[in-house]
Amino acid sequence: MNSKWRSLTVLITGMVLGLVLALGQGVWAERETLNGLPLPLDELKAFTQVFSKIKSDYVEQVDDRQLLKDAIRGMLNGLDPHSTYLDETAYKDLRIGTTGEFGGLGIEVGMEDSFVKVIAPIDDTPAQRAGVKSGDLIIRLDETPVKGLSLTDAVKLMRGKPGTDILLTIVREGEEKPLKITITRAVIKVKSVKQKTLEKGYGYLRITQFQARTGENLLDAISELKKENNNDLKGVILDLRNNPGGVLSAAVAVSDAFLTEGLIVYTKGRQEDSQLKFNATPSDMLKGKPVIVLVNGGSASASEIVAGALQDHKRAIIMGKRTFGKGSVQTIMPMSTETALKLTTARYYTPSGRSIQAEGIEPDITLEDVRVAKVDTSDFSMIKEADLSGHLDNGNSKKQKSDSKDKKEELSLASKDYQLYEALNLLKGMQILHSRNNK
To answer: Which of 167, 251, 326, 334 has the largest count of CB atoms under 10 Å?
Structure first.
């Protein structure tokens, strides 16, 4: 354990024990100080009195260790939705989660108004397939009301043996009554980066979560796109929608893949080791080719760092909806070999000095999540010259290629993912301008 935290733990334990003894004798020592501030002796006295009453009068005997653990959790729950005490199970799950394989439903969650709020469902997981959406409020887990539970306790209930079911009762904006969604638990294997060619020369990169190796995986994905397009990659769309974040170093690595210089992100906190700055290295994988970043309300934390950095450096156009607004840094502080403290220690700031916390990243172009359908064009007004009997040809010896296949593919993309369709159209326009300006 870090010596600073060991000393603090010993100090606090000693103070509480000392106060208990002092209370028993009816004597109070001089006011001690912690970090130069007077100790709140009245509140500490109240704590020891409550502890004593629970021990003596509660209907059932309660273990001292459990009471103290609950007291620790209560302190952290009162700070913010992300600070928490990680017991043996939670600490193990956290370490497994950053490597890309863990058990559960496949959702990133936080607390809001004593309910579990879905930050984002993770791609290709039971939660996403069952229809859970970013912004959903989970109010009941099977028959257990969520109100009154800590986030840790709620997560424990959601985890379980793969193959078993859990019923989520969800309140969703726009729905008149709560939804009931049954999800089958599974071992969640998250592939951090996916790539594909949308059209010749135009690549698509999807980051589902920022893990330890996401930066390396992104570089591999870009290299693969270049191969698929005979080293003529004209631009890419980076999809960070419903990406709940993850490891800070991965966000820095992803941003650095598109930048050649300047600040990527910096943090500010009370402790000196919370003042961090991360700068780009001179290695833009796309050599200045256009980039569009897709975001929405489920894009959080590390996703917002990437979007903010590329937006501030004018390296990418950000499209979609305002992001989640999680701009705080959580530091994992081991308390023992099996437990840890997850404590908010700083805030993130974009290169221009914008705080992400509770604000999020405002996209350059706002796109609603809508569905489109093909319009019936079979009426007389849509007849063209080429449809008229005896029309003249255009004088070219070569026949024009039919573009029906391309139009069919475009319509398919527009109907499946309108935001991606619009991003691709903009990317084409940016590439045309880029190529003209570089002639």
So the answer is: 251
Separation CA 405–CA 390 (nearest Å): 26
- pLDDT at position 409 is 62
Residue for token pair 């020369």: 201
Cite the active site residues.
Answer: 301, 312, 326
Quote the CA–CA distance of 2 and 6 in Å, as a whole number: 6
The burial of 105, by beta-carbon neighbours within 10 Å (0-12 exposed, 13-18 middle, 19 or more buried), is given as: buried
Q: How many whole angstroms from its chain centre is CA 224?
A: 26
Name the CATH superfamily, with its identifier, for domain 88-97+101-189: PDZ domain (2.30.42.10)
CA distance 241 to 300: 9
Which are the contacts of 147, defined by CB distance < 8 A and separation ≥ 6? Answer: 114, 115, 139
Phi and psi torsions of 264, nearest 5°: -100, -50
Fold for the domain defined by 193-366: 2-enoyl-CoA Hydratase; Chain A, domain 1 (3.90.226)
Say what the pLDDT of residue 22 is. 40
The pLDDT of residue 17: 45
The single residue listed with the structure tokens 């700070």 is 79
Per DSSP, what are the bridge partners of residue 318?
293
- Residue range(s) of every CATH 2.30.42.10 domain in the chain: 88-97+101-189
Per-residue pLDDT reduced to its tens digit, 136-192: 999 999 999 999 888 888 988 998 888 999 999 999 999 999 999 999 999 888 889
> Which residue shows structure tokens 């999020």?
360
Segments of the chain scoring below 70 in pLDDT: 1-36, 96-103, 374-383, 396-411, 439
Predicted confidence at residue 15, as pLDDT, reads 44
